[in-house]
């Protein structure tokens, strides 16, 4: 059974850091492009970072230079290191795996809440 489980969210002050983890089971992550998405209340879900099976990374302009996506294939886990956090980074963060044949993000985790507030 394919499963993605996010962890590492929480409450952090502006300027702080968090590291999110996305652990996979039922399939091998290194065959897939993995994306981290977020959805704030009243807003659409947006892609903030992705990492391909070859290790190429892409970032949304709003997080470039502050967030870093990485993968540990040995642990079948993808990470999102978030630094210099801002209140506008507050959202539920989801990881997703993109099916290589269809290029569709069709495997999703349950999400983890990140709240940036003083």
Question: Can you tag this structure with a few keywords?
Answer:
4-stranded antiparallel beta sheet; 118 residues
Overall description:
With 118 residues, the protein is an all-beta fold. 0% of the residues lie in helices and 53% in strands. The strands form 2 sheets. Strands 2, 4, 5, 6, 9, 10 and 11 form a 7-stranded mixed β-sheet that branches. The relative contact order is 0.31.
Strands, helices and their partners?
Elements: E1 3-7, E2 10-12, E3 18-25, E4 33-39, E5 46-51, E6 57-59, E7 67-72, E8 77-82, E9 91-99, E10 104-108, E11 112-116
Distance between the termini: 40 Å
The assigned structural class equals mainly beta
Q: Kindly provide the radius of gyration, computed on alpha-carbon positions and rounded to a whole number of angstroms.
A: 13 Å
Specify the helix fraction band: under 10%
Q: What shape does the CA trace take?
A: globular
Helix run count: 0
Write a short abstract of this structure:
The chain has 118 residues and is mainly β. It has strands spanning 3-7, 10-12, 18-25, 33-39, 46-51, 57-59, 67-72, 77-82, 91-99, 104-108, 112-116.
């Amino acid at each position: 059974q394919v499963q993605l489980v996010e962890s590492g969210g929480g409450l952090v002050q502006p300027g702080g850091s968090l590291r999110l983890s996305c652990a996979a089971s039922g399939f091998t992550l290194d065959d897939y492009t993995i994306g981290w998405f977020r959805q704030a209340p009243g807003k659409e879900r947006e892609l903030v970072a992705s990492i391909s099976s070859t290790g190429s990374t892409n970032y949304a302009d709003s997080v470039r230079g502050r967030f870093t996506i990485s993968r540990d294939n040995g642990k079948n886990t993808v990470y999102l290191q978030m630094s210099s956090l801002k209140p506008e980074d507050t959202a539920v963060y989801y990881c997703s795996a993109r099916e290589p044949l269809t290029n569709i993000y069709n495997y999703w985790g349950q999400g983890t809440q990140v709240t940036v507030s003083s």
